[in-house]
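Deliverable D5.2: sample structural annotation.
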Amino acid sequence: MTMFSTGVLVLTSPLNTLPLRIAPVLTSAAQIVERTLYVHLHPGLNLSSAAQTRPVYIPATRDVTSLITRLYSKAADVCSHLDIRVLLTNIRAHSLSHNPFPSAQTLSQTPEVVLTDYGVSDSSQMNLAKQCLGKYAAGCYVCKPNLATVLLAPGLEPAAEGGSSDSSPALKTYSDVVVGGTFDRLHGAHQILLGVSCLLADERFLIGVSDHDLLKNKMLKELIQPYSVRVKKLRELLQDIKPSLRYEIVPLSDPYGPSITDPHLQCIVVSEETRKGGDAVNKKRLENGLPELFLHEIQLIKDAHHTDIEEEKISSSSLRFRLLGSLLQPPQENPNIPALPYVIGLTGGSGSGKSSVAKRLEGLGAACIDSDRLGHETYKHGGPAYHKVVQEFGADILNEDGTINRKLLGRKVFENKEKLKCLTDIVWPEIVNLTKKTDKRGSS
């Protein structure tokens, strides 16, 4: 079967039966689309009559938000390699009679194929249904010429006839909605947060993106994408899913940002995990003489593929952990560096996996030079940095046998940046010298 990079999946099953069909539909779609799959909701769409294939507004109800949550959750289970994006241009809380697509919407990735869960009762109707599907998709989104059309229904159980979703409560919306987060390597949980927020917002959506000090305590912070990259990917996603909103993306250097000072905000979207943060925002707003924000809580998504040392929920931390040991970028050739010995530098904070990677490389035959151990050797009794360290920091750092007491030395330097720099200026050059000597012995 031909594979396509990008596709649009038009879901036509009734809302009350669609949740049970999501997994098989996505599984079938993943056999045809390999990178980006846009999802367009139109429950009840009839593709057996060209006269009835017009896009309409779908009411934004609680059932719709539950469906979006379930869709991203199932996608994480059955097709986690796909970038799933539920499009919301035709979903509104306030009923409108005009066409939601006065002109075809341009997406960041141009669809090459359109798929649907629509089923035909007679095989003779398949060609007509495909023609209607192609015309419908091209009227909603700018697609590639010669757009391919696929009916997934032959491989699926027929959808049961269902009632309408009129009984589902309408979603209360707000003029201005705010969320905050790191938004590193966007995943299904981010998509739910952002998608539901877009449904709740009528005019403006304010997104605070963690930066600087807020990243210091993040697991594997060294692997967090740069702020500019995270913002670029956010803008691309948001323009895809609901281009009619006004988006404001701002950096966060503290946990609150503009959420406690902006008088126009009405709602903040949180998860079960961050609800306390939402309560803290409201406390600060009251202190500032501003009204509290409505807290809309979304569910966390379980990660069906997590390991024992990863979080149970889908998280960017787990995604960063899975990057350990992978090549993030190819090595750059440098003619000024000799080909042998080939030197690989392992750096990173505590718990970043340096020791694990070093053991793996040693198992492949590499010689490992431990700079931490060499650092300790430099100021051992008789070491190249011993006398300089004692002269700089005093004899009170010595044990009775004349060796340097590392705990006493640590107390002096780790609470004083100037003294710490003084120590590194003494020790680091000697570590380099010892490294070169060890390297020569290992390559001989």
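Annotation notes: The two ends are 55 Å apart (CA to CA). The first strand starts at residue 4 and ends at 11.
The annotation will be released with the project's public dataset once the embargo ends.
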